[in-house]
Design goal:
This protein is α/β, with parallel strands linked by helices and 542 residues long. It is built from 20 helices and 20 strands. The radius of gyration is 23 Å and the shape is globular. The chain starts with a strand and ends in a 5-residue tail after the last helix.
Length: 542
């Protein structure tokens, strides 16, 4: 059995144990593993209060509430409990379970550790309540629970002995230390552990003061491991995981180059992310593929044949997907979008480097280009403590009031279901990160699989897929320095001179772009991704 540990796993909207791309990618990884018939068991924490439900007022001010999740509605209580030493007492955790059923019937279990246990003290009982919440005192204990508790839970559950360990980011690096305590040698940990790094952003790599870490883990970490984890006088959880793992990958070719600069001591190879295509292709497009691309669910390579899709079938399916999004917008905001306009979508976690408001940098020029012709649909959450991300949402609301006949709607409380409606229901998918800060960008992959061209900075996965003017457009010339004016002007030039003319040109031109987008998506399925990971899994223990 391969143990897959991740701080967040997103399986569907109502089970709100995820914040964004990392968690949803983890869910897609496990769904794809189930389809492939791999023996994997996953562990994460049960965040009963999740990442926070987003509320927006009329000016775009974000606030959050934390409705409590009832695990009985989503998960099975295994009846088993975990007990690990912490803070001079015992931390108890319930173990909940769900099962992912693959296309061929194979099952992948996912376990959720829950510290809402009557035996826990007040300090510990709420430890797993919220995702990425609290300060370092809480975070390091959550990571101790995930890493140490995750391994011990798998042993209690009978998934033992383990063949290998897959650490999804540094949050779960303590699992490698626990495997040494369970009997693996340092060499076995190296040969049987894969570490995946997802982000060039410093905030994605947790660092803690050594006094705090050692007070929690006590004698778990040895001198050699402490040396590997030390960076700038602190304990870097990513350095720990990478130092322990003999296999390290990043999530796109460009991301591997960036990560190699961040962790020069490691040999980092790329496995570009992919998305679970049966999950992320809309019902309307799925019906079309069922009719005209037989076998696509079991074999994502069948999407390569999208050039054969009929004009009437493709137009009908895309029209229905667009109508679903317009109805969602109407029900959530009261705004009736125009079915004849070019609808541009942008939805992701609101972090400052993603530059959600870049398209509004020059309002007069945008008005000149798009008045009466385009409309925007936005969605996404800022971290509750990220004031910069929250300010971006306010900028979008403010810009919407200064545009002339260019509707802008913002869908509150972004979720997986909203993401599916948007990536399949818009006409163009916009992405404007500061290159090379976007490690991958899976929402754009979901869009192309639904026949939606990308309009994106050449960052993350897009340099591997972009055929400019054929399946979408690349903004700029791969510049790595931040220049918002330069990138905004490049975006406006494309909108004015290429995107809108293509939209308004012949029917055949846009149909060709949609087909080409789908063909591009065939290379970015979770099926392709999991097979690349499987090549590494097969080396474990050899």
């Amino acid at each position: 059995m391969i143990a897959y540990l991740s701080a967040e796993i997103g399986l569907y909207s109502e089970l709100h144990t995820y914040s964004g791309g990392l968690g949803v990618l983890a869910g897609d990884h496990l769904k794809s593993a189930a389809d492939e018939g791999l023996d994997i068991a996953a562990v994460t924490l049960l965040y009963r209060e999740g990442y926070g439900r987003q509320h927006l007022d009329d000016e775009g001010n974000q606030t959050e509430t934390y409705p409590d999740l009832d695990p009985n509605k989503h998960l099975e209580d295994t009846g088993l409990e975990l007990s690990i030493p912490l803070d001079g007492s015992k931390l108890k955790s319930k173990i909940w379970r769900t099962v992912i059923h693959g296309q061929g019937g194979h099952e992948v279990p996912v376990y959720f550790l829950d510290t809402r246990h009557t035996s826990n003290n007040e300090r510990h009982i709420s430890l797993s309540d919220r995702l990425y919440a609290g300060g370092d005192e809480m975070r390091v204990r959550q990571e101790y629970l995930l890493g140490v508790g995750g391994i011990r839970a798998l042993k209690i559950l009978g998934h033992w002995p383990l063949k290998g360990l897959h650490l999804n980011e540094g949050h779960c690096s303590m699992a490698a230390l626990e495997m040494m305590r369970q009997g693996w040698s340092r060499e076995e940990v190296s040969s049987r552990t894969l570490f995946t790094t997802h982000t060039p952003v410093a905030a994605g790599h947790d660092r803690f003061e050594w006094d705090l870490v050692e007070s929690v883990v006590e004698d778990l970490i040895g001198s050699d491991e402490k040396k590997a984890a030390s960076d700038g006088g602190q304990c870097s959880m990513s350095h720990l995981g990478i130092g322990m793992a003999g296999n390290v990958n990043a999530v796109s070719i460009l991301n591997a180059e960036v990560a190699s600069g961040m962790f020069p001591e490691a040999d980092i190879s790329p496995i570009t992310n992919g998305v679970h295509h049966p999950t992320w292709i809309s019902p309307t497009m799925s019906r079309l593929y069922d009719e005209e691309l037989r076998g696509w669910r079991l074999d994502g390579d069948v999407l390569l044949e999208a050039g054969t899709l009929s004009e009437t079938g493709l137009e009908r399916a895309r029209s229905e997907s667009r109508a679903v999004l317009r109805e969602l917008v109407r029900s959530m905001t009261g705004v009736n979008l125009d079915g004849n306009r070019l609808t541009i979508g942008f939805a992701r976690r609101f972090a400052t480097y993603k530059r959600a408001s870049l398209v509004f940098r020059d309002i007069p020029r945008l008005n000149e280009i798009g008045s009466g012709q385009i409309q925007f649909v936005f969605s996404g959450k800022a971290h509750p403590k990220d004031e910069g991300g929250k300010a971006l949402i306010k900028e979008i609301f403010d810009a919407s009031n200064r545009l002339e006949d260019i509707p802008v709607v913002f869908l509150e409380d972004y979720s997986m279901s909203t993401g599916l409606a948007m990536t399949s229901g818009v006409d163009v998918w916009l992405n404007t990160p500061v290159r090379p800060m976007e490690a991958s960008g899976t929402s754009g992959m979901k869009a192309v699989m639904n026949g939606v061209p990308n309009l994106s900075i050449l960052d993350g996965w897009w340099p591997e897929a972009c055929n400019h003017g054929v399946n979408g457009w690349g903004i700029g010339n791969k510049e790595d320095s931040r220049d918002d004016d330069r990138d905004a002007n490049a975006l406006y030039d494309l909108l004015e001179n290429e995107v809108l003319p293509a939209w308004k040109s012949s029917r055949d031109r846009w149909l060709s772009m949609m087909r080409s987008a789908i063909v591009a998506g065939s290379a970015f399925t979770g099926q392709r991704m999991i097979r690349e990971y499987e090549n590494i899994y097969e080396t474990f223990g050899m």
